[in-house]
Each structure stands twice: as C-alpha cells, then as structure tokens.
C-alpha cells in the first residue's frame, strides 16, 4: 500500500480566492443573460416583490456561505502552517525521492545533515550523498520496497559536504506524488554516536576476550607443567618410599603394610591432582580427550551425544590440541545448557587439505543477527580461538531448527 505524498503550501489561499470569485461572477451574469427569456418589466408588482425577497434571501445565504468558506480557508491555512512547522522544523530529516532517485522535497533538518542549502539539494540524486561502498545497501532497500511494498529501513554511511561521513538510518515508505508518480518518503536519522559506541564496546569486548583466552592458555600451559612436575617429583618420592618399605617389611611386616597403604593413598591423591590440573585424556591425544568429554557430558546431562571420531590423527601441537578441545567443549556446553537439545553429534574428519571439527544439535536454535548472540563471550571466544589458529569457524542456526558449529583448519596449521 502506498501513501499519497503531501505537497507543501506554496501560496496563500486568500490570494487565490479573489480572482476565482470575480471569474465566477462573470460566468453567472453571462448565464443569466443567456438563459433568462423572461422580461423583468413584464412582472407584476407582487411578483417583483417576491423576486426581490427571494434575491435578498439568496444573497444572505451566499454571504453566510462566503463567511463559512473564509473560516474554512483560515482553518486550512492554519493547519498547513502547523504542518509546515512540524515538517520543516522536525529534529530528524524528511525527504521525498522520485522513482529515478532524485530528491524532490526535503525539510531543514535534511539540509543540515547534508550541509547544503535546499536549492542545492532538490533535484539532486540521493546516491550523490551516499558513500559509494554503501550504495548497494540503498538500492537493495529500494528494490524490496518496490517488490514488497512494506516500509523498509537500513543503516549506511552518508556524506556531509565539507565534513566527514556519518552513519545514517533510513526508514522509507512507498507513496505516490500529487501527479500519481511513485515516490519514496524517507525519514533520515544520524546514528553516528550509537555506531561509534557499539564499535567501542565491541573493541573492548574483543580486547577483554583476547586477554581472557590468553590467560586461559597460559593457565593451561602452567597446569600441564605443574601436573607433570607433581607426577614426576612425587612419583619418584613415592617410588623411593616403596623401596624403603620393602626393606622394612622383613623386620616389621605390620608397620610396613600400614606405610604401604599410606603410599598408595598418596599416589592416588597425586593422580587426582594431575587430572584436575589437566584432563588426563588430552595427554593421550585429542581424539581420546573428545571421547572422554562427550561420554562424561552425556552421562551428566542425559543428552544423547554421538561422537564420530577417527582412530588416529596427524601429530598436532599442544596449543592446537587445546584450542580445538576448548572449541568443542564450548559448543557442546552451549548445546546442552542453552539449546535444550535432545541429540548432539560431534565429528572430526581429516581431508587432504583440511581438518574439520563439527558440533551439531537439534535444539531450539537462535537468530544469527540477534544482538544478544554477538554479545555472548562463548561464541566470540570460539571465533577468536579459530582466528588464532588460522582456521575458519562457521555457525549456522535458525530458531527452532538447531545449530551447527564447524571449524575448518588447514592441515598445514600446527600439524606434522
């Protein structure tokens, strides 16, 4: 549905009324002379008085109608003046664009945003005020309006004469001009401050995320080293104690047995500490670590998790294994805790030129353009880890149709 574009007032209605009344009187006199076949001097006195009475009544009626018309004209002029003030002095830009993309009308806010006078703005192509790289955004919105007819909006960069470019939000509606030609009615808002604030927030999030991931990687490396030290140092100590206990056993078997039990407890505690510092399965390789993680998560959550994993993998560097493990861990955790999935599948495939890790679920999914999604550190963390690996991370999701996280890693990145 299109709207009728309102034409701005260009002349006072009272100025136009005077020549119209004069013309109307001349036409009435001509019609009276041509159409009246009755001679006035032939009328009787009574008929003359009746005619005069009717003429006076009619004159009064015309005067009353004239007064009403003048009041209506005054009200219309006041309404037009109020509309002019609302249109021209509005805090946002309003302008009309022809089918060929020419600016037909514009209010003062539009001229201020573009930094030009109204005369320099009218009849100019709207594309001349849009940054070249963003012109396709406007044309896409225009095509949608022509095909669908509903109001559309977009955000793009526009240019202000003699100043830097600015971010603008356009809200357009299809309409018709007074001549019946198709036009666009556009509302223009400057959203530069909001876009800059969003960019600053995203930059801060990115730096915070990078710091958090770096801290986590350093902690992982520290845990690996600490776990190895705990295992090696305490392991050697417990081995020496066991040797000493074997010597004592010949003299005091009962005491030796109690000492041996304490050594076993110490060895078990050492193993538990090492596992807490670093998943023991990861020491046996990424595949074993993923199998152990999916089995434990499936048991804890009662969600059916299928693991399609190869028997062996090329030799991967420690940082690469940990990064892939963390991405899989984050994707699986999201599917279990947030997606309300009933079934999840994790797969790891090796091709000639790449390695692919994929986690898919049948959960509730989400809209990829949702602001809350891009604010979440989980998805940002996976993207950042993939970027650090030189890998490509793709997320596909639709509300009600689950989610799929796919990591594509060149075989030359961290493999041997």
General description of the model:
55% of the residues lie in helices and 18% in strands. The protein has four domains: 3-33 and 42-87, no CATH class; 93-190, Beta-Lactamase, CATH 3.30.450.20; 197-278; 286-416, Histidine kinase-like ATPase, C-terminal domain (Heat Shock Protein 90, 2-Layer Sandwich), CATH 3.30.565.10. It has helices spanning 13-35, 45-88, 108-114, 118-121, 135-148, 192-249, 253-277, 286-301, 318-337, 371-375, 377-389, and strands at 3-4, 93-98, 103-106, 152-158, 166-176, 182-190, 304-308, 343-350, 354-361, 392-397, 403-410. The protein is of the alpha+beta class. The radius of gyration is 42 Å and the shape is rod-shaped. A hairpin with a 5-residue loop joins strand 5 and strand 6 (182-190). Strands 1, 2, 3, 4, 5 and 6 form a six-stranded mixed beta sheet that branches. The chain starts with a strand and ends in a 6-residue tail after the last strand.
């Amino acid at each position: 549905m299109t709207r009728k574009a309102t034409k701005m007032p260009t002349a006072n209605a009272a100025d136009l009324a005077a020549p119209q009344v004069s013309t109307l009187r001349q036409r009435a006199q001509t019609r009276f002379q041509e159409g009246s076949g009755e001679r006035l001097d032939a009328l009787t006195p009574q008929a003359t008085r009746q005619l005069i009475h009717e003429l006076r009544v009619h004159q009064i009626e015309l005067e009353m109608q004239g007064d009403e018309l003048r009041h209506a004209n005054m009200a219309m002029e006041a309404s037009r003046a109020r509309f002019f003030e609302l249109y021209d002095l509005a805090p946002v830009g309003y302008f009309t664009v022809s089918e060929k993309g020419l600016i037909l009308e514009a209010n003062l806010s539009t001229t201020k945003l573009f930094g030009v006078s109204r005369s320099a703005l009218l009849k100019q192509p709207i594309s001349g005020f849009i940054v070249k790289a963003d012109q396709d955004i406007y044309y896409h919105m225009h095509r949608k309006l022509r095909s669908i007819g509903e109001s559309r909006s977009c955000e793009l960069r526009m240019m202000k004469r003699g100043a830097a470019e600015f971010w603008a939000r356009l809200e357009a509606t299809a309409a018709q001009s007074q001549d019946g030609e198709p036009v666009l009615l556009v509302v223009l808002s400057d959203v530069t401050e909001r876009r800059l604030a969003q960019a600053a927030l995203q930059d801060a999030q990115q730096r915070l995320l990078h710091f958090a991931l770096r801290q986590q990687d350093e902690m992982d490396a520290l845990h690996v080293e600490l776990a190895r030290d705990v295992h090696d140092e305490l392991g050697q100590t417990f081995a020496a104690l066991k040797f000493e206990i074997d010597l004592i056993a010949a003299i005091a078997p009962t005491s030796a047995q109690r000492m041996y039990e304490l050594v076993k407890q110490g060895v078990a505690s050492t193993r538990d500490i090492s596992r807490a510092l670093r998943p023991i399965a990861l020491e046996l390789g990424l595949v074993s670590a993923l199998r152990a993680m999916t089995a434990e998560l499936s048991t804890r959550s009662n969600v059916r998790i299928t693991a399609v994993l190869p028997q062996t993998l090329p030799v991967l560097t420690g940082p690469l294994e940990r990064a892939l493990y963390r991405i899989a861990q984050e994707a699986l955790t999201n599917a279990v805790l947030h997606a309300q999935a009933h079934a999840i599948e994790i797969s790891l495939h090796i091709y000639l030129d790449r390695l692919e890790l994929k986690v898919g679920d049948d959960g509730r999914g989400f809209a990829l353009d949702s602001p809350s999604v891009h604010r979440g550190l989980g998805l940002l963390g996976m993207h950042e880890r993939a970027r650090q690996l030189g890998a490509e991370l793709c997320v596909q999701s639709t509300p009600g149709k689950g989610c799929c996280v796919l990591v594509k890693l060149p075989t030359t990145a961290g493999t041997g």
